[in-house]
Amino acid sequence: MARPAGLRQIGEALFELAPGLRPGMRVPVRVFGSAALVEAMDEKVFVQAANVAALPGIVEASLCMPDAHWGYGFPIGGVAAFDIESGVISPGGIGFDINCGMRLVRTDLDWKEVEPRLDALLDALAARVPAGTGREGFVHLSKPELRAVLREGAAWAVRNGYGTPEDLTFSEAGGCFAGADPDCVSERACERGQHQLGTLGSGNHYLELQVLRPEGVFDAELTRAFGLAPGQLAVMFHCGSRGFGHQVATDYLHRFLQAMPSKFGLPVIDRELACAPIGSAEGREYHAAMCCAANMSFANRQVILHRVREVFEGVFGRDASSRIRTVYDVAHNTAKFERHVVRGVERSLLVHRKGATRAFPPGHSELPEAYRATGQPVVIGGSMETGSYLLAGVATGAASFFSTAHGSGRIMSRRAARKRTSGRELLGQMEARGMRVRVASLAGLAEEAGFAYKDVDAVAEASERAGLSRRVAHLLPVGTVKG
To answer: I need a surface site. Which of 118, 158, 321, 443 has the fewest CB within 10 A?
Structure first.
């Protein structure tokens, strides 16, 4: 599509839509990306970003990452920071799949060693890590145990034998968001999440075996610092809080919509942007429930890693806990209280990242010691046909509240993708190219075809050109487990 009226380029990979061009905007809209990526964005991206720019207490700008596309409330790839005194919190700025995130782990195996056993490895992974709508995991929680998971996140899993303390060190926020309160979560949400630990879910969630080829190394020094080398097998998986997070978002969207005009005197700019003041009882309770969902997701990915280690031990006959190690676990679809410098003044802000991930720079206090000099590892997940990128946070990311793209971003609806190809046809094409797939639903496979997504190479390059993060390595898929 053509650029919307008033959108102008203000940097190498930065565009701005000034306030006043749409009713109620308090701040500009800023879009990070190449001209080609920005011009290809759906008009709804700019409409949604402009609506976000009208929310109370928003600071500096309503931001869009290079992978931005139309979503619910915020565009997916939308970032906004709010003043903690005058700002709001919005489920539409976080998403239904709260802390839908990525975990990258490295193995000590070379691709040549794995290739002869690839099919056996994928069969075992598909059997041990349930994928698809409604699937339950092997961890069956009592109600008290579920409450502990919601409070502790991945630490609960490690404490119960599903991982190592090192896994927590290399997880965002140590695998646990502080401030979680299970009393702020509905009984329905608990029912939906009680038996879902250790499951992938459906849609764009996956577990992928990847190989780092020599030509995929962009920064050899950082690649080594993150524990990777050419020819090495890595494992990446993408999943979130499943039905639990969806129910948390649904519950509070309804509650906020009722309270906005009657209790808070807030105009309903867009029903999908239902919100509450950060300091209100409703706002505090939603944040506490959101933290519970984030912790559910951290625990989910930790249990999946435990199952991955079990599978590798079974197939390769050696201890895996010290040989399969977390590079990093990073969240998206969250709102976090953070300190940021805005126009020379350090401020406390609530940063919403919807389909975006944090990307802290070298020296940041929240990074583990091993990454204090490198900057935070960042994962941009591509489609199952194109591979994914490992990047690192940089100091220039301050312009986005240290946020960056989280994936390649859809350009085609799931329905349109199914019309263009069948799951069986796509499966055959992928197998012919040497990519092995285990899938719970052929229709779901068709929805995730590579042509339904933006070019991940272009998104990663634009993220670097925009100063959001720097490319480290490109990992190529050799086997995928999907819902």
So the answer is: 443
Q: Is residue 356 a contact partner of residue 404, using CB atoms and an 8 Å limit?
A: yes
Token couple for 376? 């935070």
Burial class of residue 429 (count of CB atoms within 10 Å of its CB; 0-12, 13-18, 19+): middle
Question: Is 406 an annotated catalytic residue?
Answer: yes
Tens digits of pLDDT across the chain (483 residues)? 556 778 999 999 999 999 987 789 999 999 999 999 999 999 999 999 999 999 999 999 999 999 999 999 999 999 999 999 999 999 999 999 999 999 999 999 999 999 999 999 999 999 999 887 778 888 989 999 999 999 999 999 999 999 999 999 999 999 999 999 999 999 999 999 999 999 998 888 889 999 999 999 999 999 999 999 999 999 999 999 999 999 999 999 999 999 999 999 999 989 999 999 999 999 999 999 999 999 999 999 999 999 999 999 999 987 766 789 999 999 999 999 999 999 999 999 999 999 999 999 999 999 999 999 999 999 999 887 889 999 999 999 999 999 999 998 888 888 898 989 998 998 888 888 888 989 888 888 888 888 888 899 999 999 999 999 999 999 999 999 987
Q: Which residues does 109 contact at the CB level (< 8 Å), separation at least 6?
A: 232, 233, 312, 316, 323
φ and ψ of 112, to 5 deg:
-65, -30
Mapping DSSP to helix (H, G, I), strand (E, B) and coil, where does residue 350 land? strand
CA distance 378 to 364: 14
* Residue showing tokens 């919005």: 90
Q: Which of 205, 306, 352, 406 is catalytic?
A: 406
- CA-based torsion, 188, 193, 194, 196: positive or negative: positive
The closest of 15, 27, 10, 24 to 62, measured between CA atoms, is: 27
Q: Specify the DSSP element, H or E, that contains 432.
A: helix 423-432
**What are the tokens at 131?**
């994928």
Angle value at C-alpha 325, between 392 and 157, nearest 5 degrees:
105
**CA-to-CA distance for 362 and 272, rounded, in angstroms?**
36
Please provide residue 270's backbone torsions phi and psi, each rounded to the nearest 5 degrees: -155, 125
List the Cα angle 395/401/402 in 5-degree steps. 45
Q: Which candidate, 186, 236, 193, 231, places its Cα nearest to that of 212?
A: 231
Q: Which amino acid is at 406?
A: H
Dist CA 128 CA 135 (whole Å): 12
* Environment class of 441 (CB within 10 Å of its CB; exposed 0-12, middle 13-18, buried 19+): middle
Q: Are 201 and 101 in contact (CB under 8 A)?
A: no
**Closest to 299 (Cα-Cα) out of 188, 187, 137:** 137
